[in-house]
Amino acid sequence: MRNVLVTGGSRGLGLGMAQRLAAAGFQVVALARKDSDALAAARAQVAQEGRGALHFHAFDLADIDGIGALVKDLRGAYGPFHGLVNNAGLGTAGILASMPDSAIEQLIRLNIVSPVTLTKYVVRSMMAAQREIGQGGRIVNIASIVGSTGYSGLSIYSATKAALVGFTRSLARELGPLGITVNAVAPGFVDTEMTHTLTGAQRGQIARRSALQRLPTVEDVAGAVDFLFSDAARNVTGTVMTIDAGNTA
Amino acid sequence: MSVRPIILENIVRIAQQQKKPLAPLTDELPLLESGLDSLCIAILVASLDDSLGVDPFDRDGDVAFPVTIGDLIGLYEHATA
Ligand SMILES: NC(=O)c1ccc[n+]([C@@H]2O[C@H](COP(=O)([O-])OP(=O)(O)OC[C@H]3O[C@@H](n4cnc5c(N)ncnc54)[C@H](OP(=O)(O)O)[C@@H]3O)[C@@H](O)[C@H]2O)c1
């Protein structure tokens, strides 16, 4: 079974992606600081269905210095990795002028420094594993539509998501000769814990402003990731898939 | 354990995989003229880290990049000694 690491796979969008990729036959390692009941239930279901596999691995991605050792541990436990989904992220909102410096630093660390460092070590591991499993691999970065549109109160968050898109495009060029694809998925607002502070009225307004008059779901975003990991997407790289029910159309 | 044959074998494999024509490998051959590009060298360093457990370049830039194939082998011989 080919291994895929999904960061932030314990709940929300990441859990949906982890379940979907396991159902597609991958051995998925869902990484987060703590396990969740929802992930435990998903693991039981995957085990019962007998297709793919789903595991949990605890790690705090704010520990940048520990990422190299994390990737070595994962490789030791599961073997070489075929794919990585950089999904874990913070959604801290706040007006820039009144945001504590430490919150700015924390957001940039978790949403950018951490995924690019993790990608570095996973790519090294993919390079080293070529002899065993041949060329190829998939990397998907979870960005956001606010990386290219704009939303008051999300300036730092938006900056990190735009940065991920720039990272995606250049890395796709760099890793193309290895047959590794690198893409981004940019969801619109989806109901998860990250967006629970939005009021019903704000949700309604976002839905009304979307072409399809509704919000995308976790399953919609997981479906896009599933596609990017499928054989059908073997010639898709360096691009951004927007899943927003037409909010930015 | 001799690292020399491991390094040479990896260089040949990676160049083949990346379809880069290799110059005859001698200790005096400058890396820049070997046929390996920067991606090939990154793959080489990652593969050697995996098989030998060392990365002599992983020390925040205080290692001078080797000029020749012989220098590269020497660096790994030193790191694994
Ligand atoms: N929801 C949306 O509307 C929306 C829209 C566009 C883009 N996105 C992006 O989609 C991604 C997932 O969002 P979501 O809404 O699913 O978020 P979520 O429900 O808040 O889940 C975040 C996940 O990341 C993990 N995580 C958080 N901090 C971590 C850390 N320091 N180390 C390791 N794992 C950590 C969490 O587990 P632990 O807390 O246990 O660590 C959890 O599994 C994010 O990158 C977000 O920016 C979301």
From TrEMBL, chain A:
- Does the UniProt entry include the keyword Oxidoreductase? yes
CDD domains documented for this protein: SDR_c
One family from Pfam that matches here is adh_short
Among the GO molecular function terms of this UniProt record, one is:
oxidoreductase activity
Q: Name one GO biological process term.
A: monocarboxylic acid metabolic process
Record carries keyword Oxidoreductase: yes
Q: Per its UniProt record, what SUPFAM superfamilies does this chain match?
A: NAD(P)-binding Rossmann-fold domains
Which keywords does the record carry?
Answer: Oxidoreductase
Family named by the database record: Belongs to the short-chain dehydrogenases/reductases (SDR) family.
Q: What is this protein called?
A: 3-oxoacyl-ACP reductase
From TrEMBL, chain B:
Name the domain of life. Answer: Bacteria
Q: What is this protein called?
A: Acyl carrier protein
